[in-house]
Amino acid sequence: METNIRMKDRRALLTHLLIGRIGKPSLKAFLYAYLYLVLPKVIKAIVSAVKKGKYDRMIPRIKKTMVKAMHPRKFPMFAASLITGINILEPMLYGAIRRTRLLKRPSSALFVSTLVSSLVSAMVTFPLFQNHVVGFGRYNSLDLTLLVATRALDTVFSSTLSHITPAGISGYGDALLFIINSTLVMFAWFYNPERLPPAYSKWITSAANMDPDFIEVLRLVRSKDLIYGQHGPNENYLTPYFEKYGRDPLGANTVVNQPIDCEAVHAFRCKSCELHALWRFWRGFKFAITVYGPLNLFMLVFPLKVKTSTRLLRALKSSLRSSCFLGSFIGLYWYGVCLARTRLFPHLFPKVPRTRFDDTICAATGAVMCGFSSFVENAQRRKELALFVAPRGLGTLIPSEPSKINLKIESFVFSICLAILVAYSRNRSSSVRGIFGKGLKQIFNVQEYN
Asked: Whole-angstrom Cα distance, residue 143 to residue 389?
């Protein structure tokens, strides 16, 4: 009788470990990753089919997308394998630490056991995922690594600084993070677009609506292939640009004009830099409202308990505020360029060569100024914006070539940063900010060891 009871207890414990401890978290990780991978593609397939009127292709495309996402080396299976490895190793390490009394506090033992088990699991599973997806595009794995790395840095710094930073100052941390990273991104977009993912760079170009001819002129100035006041093969590079707008081609010559007049930067809309900035704001606002409007209208469905009028007002306010943010981002960028080129800096620093303002300072000034647009948003939204742009900002500082050494470094960085995130989340789930923290909280159950 006693033996039967013991056998039942062991079976119950084994069932708990396999299903509750390992199975459920791994399944959650798989489902979240699967939806993250599949849902945008399904929506895109539906929208494309509706626009083109080719409804017969919609179901086969959706089915193909859903089946391909089940591949053992794709993101969903990688996420499930990663969590499985963590949940198998962690209790064994935790038990060993507690038995040997290496760490007296349960929270410290939990942190160390989670850190080590996450590191080992990631170092085993990530290279398999990386080797598969990098063949379809370098940023398939690098984007994930940059995301995890920036969230790990944010978690460590925010957890540390929150204890020593005055409350009045800490509220500006997210705004500062956004300004720094948006500066890196916009400067790279202007002069080194190869440091950004092609789709990301294309989206910025579409939103900024800057004529590629004028961007190329400033890049030529920076590379010394065009020097104001000197004859060369590119001195009349902007002649087609001036002719397109019905202007005197002589105004395009960089020997005669030092620098090119700001009206040309304004696409000849007006001579005033201030009016041009407002015009750019309006164009950015209209561009953004077509993105945020439908998205917020879709979100009207939730939550159902709130009155429709309240949800409608909330969606309208959110759409207007977000559109004002993007409009301000673009308008401030353009105004910063004008301030540095002609409006202010040449008067403050008359001894600085005019070429210097165009080869670096104008783009850098615009890149810094556009980051202040984050103050249009509320504190919660500023945090989301900062965490969103941080991976791209970091990505401009590192080499993206998929060489063997770079892939190994990426694998190590991903593993250690993910281990930090999971360890902080298991120890104190609120320490990992944003949607990333909420996802980890859903997958892991912290109360189990307390």
From this structure: 12
Residue 274 backbone phi and psi in degrees, to 5: -70, -45
Query: Are the C-beta atoms of 424 and 431 separated by less than 8 Å?
Result: yes
- Cβ-in-10-Å burial (0-12, 13-18, 19+) of 425 comes to buried
Task: Please tell me what DSSP assigns to residue 301.
Answer: G
| DSSP state for residue 15 in the 8-state scheme | H
Residue 191 pLDDT > 60, yes or no? Answer: yes
Enumerate the H helices of 162-254 as residue ranges: 167-170, 173-191, 198-208, 212-222, 239-244
Question: How far is the C-alpha of 273 from the C-alpha of 343, rounded, in Å?
Answer: 8
**Residue whose tokens read 């957890």:** 159
8 A C-beta contact, residue 194 and residue 398: no
User: What is the three-class DSSP state of 396?
Assistant: coil
Q: What is the DSSP string of 325-343?
A: HHHHHHHHHHHHHHIIIII
Task: Tell me the two tokens of residue 424.
Answer: 């902080």
Helices (H) and strands (E) in the chain, counts: 20, 0
Structure tokens at 265: 């930067």
Cα gap 298→288, rounded to integer Å: 16
- 3-state SS of 14-71 is HHHHHHHHHHHHHHHHHHHHHHHHHHHHHHHHHHHHHHHCCHHHHHHHHHHHHHHCCC
d(C-alpha 298, C-alpha 320), whole Å: 15
Model pTM score: 0.82
What is the per-residue pLDDT across 74-83, written as a single tens digit (0 to 9) for each?
A: 999 999 999 9
CA distance 202 to 100: 56
Residues in contact with 121: Cβ distance below 8 Å, sequence separation at least 6, in sequence order: 81, 82, 83, 84, 85, 86, 89
- Residue 4, both tokens: 């039967």
Name the residue with tokens 């945020």.
292
110-163: pLDDT as tens digits: 889 999 999 999 999 999 999 999 988 888 899 999 999 999 998 888 877 666
DSSP letter (8 states) at residue 272: -
Burial readout 114-124 (b: 16 or more C-beta within 10 A, e: otherwise): bbbbbbbbbbe
List the one residue out of 175, 186, 182, 185 whose CA is nearest residue 383: 175
